[in-house]
Amino acid sequence: MSSEPLIYLNGDIIEAADARISPFDRGFLWGDGVYEITPCFSGKLYRLSDHLDRLYRSLRYVRIDPGMDQAAMEAATLEALAANAQRLEPGGMYRVGHWVTRGVDTNSMSALAAQSATVMIFFRPADVGVIAANQASGVRLSVTATRRNPPECIEARAKVTSKMNQILAELDAASNDALSLMLDIRGNVAENSVANFFIVRNGSVWTPPERNILEGVTRKAVFELCERLGIPLEERDFTMYDVCQAEEYFLTSSAICAMPVREIDSFQPRLDVPGPVTSRLIAAFADDTGFDFAKLSKAA
Question: How far apart are CA 111 and CA 114, in angstroms?
C-alpha cells in the first residue's frame, strides 16, 4: 500500500497515482479555476469553514458552479481526512488543497460551454523544520519590479489559479535570494506572492487594506488575536518609507502562521528578530492551533 495521502477527485477517493484529469481541462489550458489551502495541524483542520467561505466567494466571482454546495464540500473534506487517517504522519502538518476548475474545454474554447467542474482535494506535507528555523531567524524579502494586479483588472480578493502575477514576483525576488514583497501600481506596499504582510510602528500593527491584496484567513486570525491580546491594529496604505521606520515586519499565511522578516533589501527592523509583537503572535497561534513549530521541530 502506498504511504502517499489519498486524494478526492470528482466524488471518488483514490490514490494520487491513479488520478486522471483531462489534458483539455480548462484549469490546465487557461488557469481557469480557484483554490484554497487549509492547514491541518496534527490531524485537525484549522479554520476550514473560513477557507471554504472564501472558496465559495471566489467561485461566485469567477462564475464556476462546483456541482456541490459548501456543506457537501466540507463533508468531502472530512471524508478525505478520515480516509487518510493511517497515512498522515502523527503530529505532522499538512496543506489541504481545494482546487476547482471550470471543467473540460470544448472545441469552441468558450468558458460558457465548459463541461462540469473538476473538484480535487489533496494533502501535502509541510516541512516543519524549515518553518521553525525561519521563525527563529526571520526571512529575507526583496521589493519586486512586478507590481500587484490592481482590482480594476482582476479582483485580488479572489483566490484564483491564474498566478502568473505572483509567480513573476517570486522569480524577481529569487534573483536576490529572497522572497517577494510586491507594491501596488501606486507604490503602496501590497503583499508577498503567497502571504500577507504586516509591519509594527510604535507598537501598532499595520497591514494594507483589502483593495489589492488577498483577504487572508490567517490575516483575519491576526485581527482577532490582536484584539484578544490588546495589540493596536490598523488597515492603512503605507509605503517603503514607513517600512524603513518600523520596529518589526512579519508575514502571515495558512502554512506559516506568523513569520518574522529580518530584512527587506537594505532595510532591517529596528528591534531584534522576532520582535516582541511578532513573538506574541507566534505564541498565540501555537495556542490557537495546538501546534508549536519550534517544539515539534526539536522533538523530531
Answer: 5
